[in-house]
């Protein structure tokens, strides 16, 4: 079995969350680089360019959002495949440069992780496409977190540099909505909230997406650290770990200068990851992806379709990456996919500013 050698650009929180996936026997963590020089047991490089010149097969771009395009293009120029964190970039023009660079370099470009990789979401997609429950008509997604009060770099609180809830969080809900549907999103109507002058970026949004087959999706997100929608998920957190509800308000309590850059360690994952409460409404059933499987609310009965517990976190990302690089299978979450998702996120911001419905023009088919 061929093993993919992965180099990591950016060794911060995104990498820490993704790192357990690199225990997969199909990949090897072959090096990393970060100007902050965090504790890293692997081979360290002085720059992203030096890492790209090494013997890695794939560059995982987990640098701050404003550097995604630069580092992805650099990797492609050195003949390295690219796995880039969401959001893919900060503009559609940057996305196009990344896509063109990957094509010119003859390499694969994948965008993730987002929660559209989660196995319960993928199983929900299969159930919808089976036709057993009729056509998909509506998607409802709700997530309330403490996002805005977790440890943040300055640019993460500056929308112009890719900060805020829309750039950081909306891609999850948008990706899930797109992966469940086989239609195009044609327009977005949204409102955004920026309610804390000390953290003056979007902390909340509500968006309605219209699909060209008549279906629609309602996406609601708040990161202001009050209600915690993990309560609706059996106190399983986003990372698939059991959560202690008595720790309510932890993020706000620890938001001081001495602890600003000390994120909480990750707890062991026991369930599938998720991004809050979500229901896919079909003509003859509501389907609800959950940490342990998919709840099916049919005409006359409700039942859980269980899924086996994950052995390796985010193994689905490695599945898609490995298939793309080794088996030359076109990835679902490719550059065109990532650009289409960013277009929706940018439309949420635009609609939130001007109060108008925003038509979309760069949406490929979702499936």
Provide the descriptors you would attach to this structure in a database record:
27% helix, globular, 22% strand, 9 helices, 367 residues, alpha/beta, 9-stranded mixed beta sheet, 5-stranded parallel beta sheet
Folded structure, characterized:
By secondary structure, this protein is an alpha/beta fold. 27% of the residues lie in helices and 22% in strands. Strands 13-12-11-10-6-9-8-7-14 form a nine-stranded mixed sheet. A five-stranded parallel sheet has the order 2-1-3-4-5. Helix 4 links the parallel strand 4 (81-84) and strand 5 (109-111). Helix 3 (68-77) runs parallel beside helix 4 (92-105) and helix 4 packs antiparallel against helix 9 (335-354). The protein is globular, with a radius of gyration of 20 Å. The two termini are 29 Å apart. Mean pLDDT is 94; it is low at 257-261.
* CA(first)-CA(last) distance: 29 Å
Task: Report the order of strands and helices.
Answer: EHEHEHEHEHEHEEEHEEEEHHE
Main β-sheet, in a few words? 9 strands, mixed
Unreliable stretches covering 5 or more consecutive residues: 257-261
Order of neighbouring strands in the sheet with most strands: 13-12-11-10-6-9-8-7-14
User: What do the pLDDT scores average to?
Assistant: 94
Query: Multimeric state of these chains?
Result: single chain
Bin the strand percentage: 15-25%
Report the C-alpha radius of gyration, rounded.
Answer: 20 Å
């Amino acid at each position: 079995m061929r093993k993919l050698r992965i180099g990591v650009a950016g060794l911060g929180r995104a990498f820490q969350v993704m790192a357990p996936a690199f225990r997969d026997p199909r990949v090897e963590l072959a090096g990393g680089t970060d100007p902050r020089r965090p504790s890293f047991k692997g081979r360290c490089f002085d720059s992203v360019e030096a890492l790209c010149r090494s013997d890695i097969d794939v560059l995982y771009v987990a640098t701050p959002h404003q550097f995604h395009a630069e580092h992805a293009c650099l990797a492609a120029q050195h003949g390295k495949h690219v796995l880039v964190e969401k959001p893919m970039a900060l503009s559609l023009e940057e996305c196009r440069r990344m896509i063109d660079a990957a094509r010119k370099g003859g390499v694969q470009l994948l965008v993730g992780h987002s929660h559209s990789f989660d196995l319960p979401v993928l199983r929900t997609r299969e159930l919808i496409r089976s036709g057993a429950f009729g056509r998909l008509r509506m998607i409802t997604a709700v997530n309330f977190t403490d996002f805005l009060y977790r440890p943040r770099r300055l640019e993460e609180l500056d929308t112009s540099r890719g900060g805020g809830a829309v750039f950081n969080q909306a891609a999850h809900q948008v990706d899930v909505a797109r992966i469940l549907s086989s239609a195009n999103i044609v327009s977005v109507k949204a409102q955004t909230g920026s309610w804390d002058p000390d953290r003056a970026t979007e902390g909340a949004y509500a968006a309605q997406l219209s699909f060209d087959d008549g279906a629609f999706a309602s996406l609601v997100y708040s990161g202001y650290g009050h209600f915690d929608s993990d309560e609706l998920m059996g106190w399983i957190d986003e990372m698939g770990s059991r959560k202690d509800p008595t720790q309510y308000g932890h993020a706000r309590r620890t938001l001081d200068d001495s602890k600003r850059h000390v994120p909480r360690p990750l707890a062991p994952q026991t369930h599938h990851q998720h991004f809050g409460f979500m229901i896919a409404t079909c003509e003859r059933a509501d389907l609800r992806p959950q940490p342990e499987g998919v709840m099916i609310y049919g005409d006359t009965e409700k039942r859980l379709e269980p899924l086996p517990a994950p052995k390796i976190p985010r193994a689905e990302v490695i599945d898609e990456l490995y298939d793309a690089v080794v088996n030359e299978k076109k990835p679902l979450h490719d550059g065109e996919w990532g650009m289409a998702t960013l277009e929706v996120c940018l439309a949420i911001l635009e609609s939130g500013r001007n109060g108008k419905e925003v038509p979309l023009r760069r949406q490929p088919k979702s499936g």
